[in-house]
């Protein structure tokens, strides 16, 4: 099939490359000329394992291309995907749908013959109906359907998530679009992937409900970690104990500094705002948003406490800046709260992240970025692990001790065993575990 993907960002580029790998002809369209030229040169605008080779192979095969020209890329398309950003709107927390609606207007002007327009962007309930209304007003004669097809891609594992998903959700309002969507995802039927067809409003809500539920699990285990610290329990064992219950499951039960990234913060907030608009407030999700924001800000206090109550004039080494490993995404990362708070208390910051330092440089000031973890530790009064990159999981303990001014480690991801670190001579602090 012929597919146009509007938006060559994270969702659009990964989805477009994967559809091309399924055998469809895909054009990714974006208004950012610099991004498109880089993609044409084989340079990825984001860090995602496996993406560069997937794009290169499908460009070489002639199934994937990039363009600035929507009018030239769309008329013959069977399906046009809207994969533009929907950030939180400044001032009120609602999802900013201006890019989605602008895309709808532009699509309406160039489609030719029956076309399925698919919202891949994360959007509140009712967006699909508004997209349909915009296209109908702009082109009363157009033959089209509007479909909701939310993405469930984890940064760092997006290609596998697209090709081997737990499920595919498709919100439709007519049978003609069902046939097109079945054909697009036909390769997944061979793997017996559940493809769930529902109406548009249900599909739109499924995306927000899923992210809010996962954010709730993270926030729940973080609160259990606080209780563990008070009573001498181990949060990792609590998580394992409840996670073995099939009704609960063990995923997203890892205590830490709070969730961040491109999805959970904005989607939980957007769900709260949508629920309030419809007079159906979600008190649980409201609490999750509040608790998570507070938790990230409190992490700096743990560092200060570990340093005998003062970090004024001290050098704090920070390992990991992105909100999770295997991505360069800094959006709502805990580091954006923790580092300024430490600086506000007089600390000097040395930091290293395998992929996120270029992005971090535009968001954090007065940070001394280093070339590797050991260079970051030189002369440090304490080290804070914020992101659990694999290369931080097996640091040479003796080398760590020799490089640091004082061997204090605040492990906000619990990647080391407390007893072993303490026995090695490092003053070790973690989340929700006895020292």
Describe the fold and architecture.
The chain is of the alpha/beta class. It has 2 domains: 2-198, Rossmann fold (3-Layer(aba) Sandwich); 199-435, 3-Layer(aba) Sandwich (Rossmann fold), CATH 3.40.50. The protein contains 18 helices and 14 strands. It has helices spanning 10-21, 33-40, 51-60, 70-73, 98-110, 127-138, 158-163, 175-184, 186-190, 200-231, 235-243, 264-277, 283-306, 335-344, 357-361, 373-377, 397-403, 418-423, and strands at residues 2-6, 25-29, 64-67, 79-82, 115-119, 144-148, 168-171, 195-198, 315-319, 348-352, 367-369, 382-385, 408-411, 427-429. The longest helix is centred in the middle third of the chain and has 32 residues, at 200-231.
Strands, helices and their partners?
Blueprint: E1 2-6, H1 10-21, E2 25-29, H2 33-40, H3 51-60, E3 64-67, H4 70-73, E4 79-82, H5 98-110, E5 115-119, H6 127-138, E6 144-148, H7 158-163, E7 168-171, H8 175-184, H9 186-190, E8 195-198, H10 200-231, H11 235-243, H12 264-277, H13 283-306, E9 315-319, H14 335-344, E10 348-352, H15 357-361, E11 367-369, H16 373-377, E12 382-385, H17 397-403, E13 408-411, H18 418-423, E14 427-429
Parallel strand pairs: 1-2, 1-4, 2-3, 4-5, 5-6, 7-8, 9-10, 9-12, 10-11, 12-13, 13-14
Helix pairs in contact: 1-3, 5-6, 10-12, 10-13, 12-13, 13-14
Short description:
The chain is of the alpha/beta class. Helix content is 44%, strand content 14%.
Gross geometry:
globular
At the first level of CATH, the class of the largest domain is Alpha Beta
Summed up, the helix count is 18
Identify low-pLDDT runs.
none
Oligomeric status: single chain
Name the CATH superfamily classification of the largest domain.
NAD(P)-binding Rossmann-like Domain
- The whole-number mean of residue pLDDT values reads 96
The total tally of domains equals 2
CATH architecture of the largest domain: 3-Layer(aba) Sandwich
The spatial strand order of the largest sheet comes to 3-2-1-4-5-6
β-strand amount: 5-15%
Largest sheet: 6 strands, parallel
The first-to-last residue Cα distance is: 58 Å
What fraction, in percent, of the residue positions are helical? 40-55%
Structural class determined from secondary elements = alpha/beta
Classify the fold: give the CATH topology of the largest domain.
Rossmann fold
Radius of gyration: 23 Å
How many beta-strand elements?
Answer: 14
């Amino acid at each position: 099939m012929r597919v146009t993907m509007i938006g060559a960002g994270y969702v659009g580029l990964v989805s477009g490359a994967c559809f091309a790998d399924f055998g469809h002809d895909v054009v990714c369209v974006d208004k950012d000329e610099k991004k498109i030229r880089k993609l044409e040169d084989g340079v990825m605008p984001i860090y995602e394992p496996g993406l560069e080779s997937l794009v290169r192979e499908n460009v070489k095969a002639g199934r994937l291309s990039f363009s600035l020209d929507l009018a030239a890329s769309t008329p013959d398309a069977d399906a046009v995907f809207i994969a533009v950003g929907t950030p939180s709107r400044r001032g009120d927390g609602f999802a900013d749908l201006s890019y989605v609606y602008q895309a709808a207007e532009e699509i309406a002007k160039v489609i030719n013959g029956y076309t399925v327009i698919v919202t891949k962007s994360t959007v509140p309930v009712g967006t699909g109906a508004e997209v349909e209304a915009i296209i109908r007003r702009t082109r009363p004669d157009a033959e089209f359907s509007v479909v909701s097809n939310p993405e469930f891609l984890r940064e760092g594992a997006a290609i596998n998530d697209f090709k081997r998903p737990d499920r595919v959700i498709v919100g439709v309002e007519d049978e003609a679009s069902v046939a097109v969507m079945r054909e697009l995802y036909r390769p997944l039927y061979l793997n017996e992937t559940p493809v769930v067809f529902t109406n548009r409003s249900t599909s739109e809500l499924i995306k927000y409900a899923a992210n809010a539920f996962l954010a709730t699990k993270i926030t729940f285990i973080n609160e259990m970690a606080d209780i563990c610290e008070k009573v001498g329990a181990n949060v990792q064992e609590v998580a394992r104990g409840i996670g073995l219950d099939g009704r609960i499951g063990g995923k997203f039960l890892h205590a830490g500094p709070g969730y961040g990234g491109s999805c959970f913060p904005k989607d939980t907030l957007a769900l709260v705002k949508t629920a309030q608009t419809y007079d159906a407030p979600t008190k649980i999700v409201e609490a999750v948003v509040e608790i998570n924001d507070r938790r990230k800000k409190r992490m700096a206090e743990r560092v200060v406490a570990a340093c005998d109550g003062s970090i004024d004039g001290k050098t704090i080494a920070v390992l990991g800046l992105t909100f999770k490993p295997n991505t360069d995404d800094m959006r709502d990362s805990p580091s954006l709260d923790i580092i300024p708070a430490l600086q506000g208390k007089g600390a000097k910051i040395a930091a290293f992240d395998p992929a996120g330092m270029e992005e971090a440089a535009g968001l954090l000031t007065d940070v001394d970025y280093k070339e590797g973890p050991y260079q970051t530790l030189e002369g440090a009064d304490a080290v804070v692990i914020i992101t659990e990159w694999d290369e931080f999981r097996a640091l040479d303990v003796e080398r760590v001790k020799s490089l640091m001014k004082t061997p204090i480690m605040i492990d906000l991801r619990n990647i080391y065993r407390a007893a072993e670190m303490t026995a090695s001579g490092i003053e070790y602090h973690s989340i929700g575990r006895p020292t």
